[in-house]
Amino acid sequence: MPSKASTRSLPSKPTPTHKASPLTPLALASMALLSLQFGLQPFLNHRYTHSSTNKQCVIVLQEGLKCILAFFFFTTTLTPKEITDQLHVLSLKSWILNASLPSTIYSLQNYFILLSYSSLPSITFSVLNQTKTLSAAFFCYLILGRRQSGIQCGALVILIVSAVMIEGSIDIIGLFNGTSSFDLSDNFSGDRFIYGVLPCLIASGISGLAGAITQKVLQGQAKNSYLYSLELSLFSFIYLSVSLLYTNNFDVWGIVEQFKTLHPLNLIPIFSQALGGILVGLVTKYAGSVRKGFSLIFGIALTGVVQSYIEGKKLGGNEKLGGILVVCAMYAHGIGGGGIKMGGEKKSRGGGKKEKEISVKGKKMFKSKKE
């Protein structure tokens, strides 16, 4: 005869759903600054970075500058005790484990981004780069178990559509009026696809993977974002410097001559990109890698506004509608998290009772109640 314990039914497993946490003032400020940096970066690159500029030297210099910025913010924004507490848990092993993979991915991402910048218009690059939002959501699910709810998935789709509308690749108003058609063949043909579109899509895809890993370290280990940015940039700087030496047959003086070819004005977009890396760390920690995508879409809107001002054109209906959709998508994503849905009550096999899983001081218990 089966024992009484064997007739007890097991509680159904909870189905995790990502619940959006409220945005703090620091998260909002970080997102705003990241939007500003991202929106202006394409213009800085096109104006101060020539297609013949040595990309390896630019990336090495960018990572070195990021190290300096991260160290500066880490030592000036924390108290001595907070600095000691953060450094106390830091070790060579943890540095290699936490920084090696994402820093390598970010380095590859930067290379593909620079390659794509020189072959695509500013606004086209910005839109294609936003596929990183979908990539971030996908890898956050795989690595962190953060499943997006149906409303949140819909918000992400609206986000991407709004970005393409702002860019002008899709004339939504014209499609409804029958005065335009949907054609992106110019952007996906010939050298523009090989040297522009494809590198941009690769950079966006691996960005989601690196973002999920970074979010796991920053939020799971309660690590300071400036310190982690320093860890990442230092690893990247060492890795890229060795790679630069190897590809130049360890000709140190030849490498120095390559750096001398950089114009002082080239430091403007390099500094801006390095500062953007610090802001990405802050947004990832306090808002999450998926919400980072919303910040970047606002950057696209800013790119459109600046480009419209430079060219002396007024914003069209698609740009305005796209901006409204961005705000709606961000609001929908914020309220769309369903938290954790418990399986709740389930009938036992033979006891005629329902059992409900409850938690008391961190221990799982079962509470029975008669029907």
Automatic annotation (TrEMBL):
This is Uncharacterized protein. Residues 343-360 have a biased composition (Basic and acidic residues). It is a multi-pass membrane protein. Residues 1-21, 343-371 are annotated as: Disordered. The chain crosses the membrane at residues 20-40, 123-144, 151-173, 193-214, 226-247, 267-286, 293-310, 322-340. It is found in: Membrane. GO terms for cellular component: Golgi membrane. The keyword Cell cycle does not apply. GO terms for molecular function: pyrimidine nucleotide-sugar transmembrane transporter activity. Residues 1-12 have a biased composition (Polar residues). Pfam families: Nuc_sug_transp (PF04142). The keyword Ligase does not apply. It comes from Triparma laevis f. longispina.
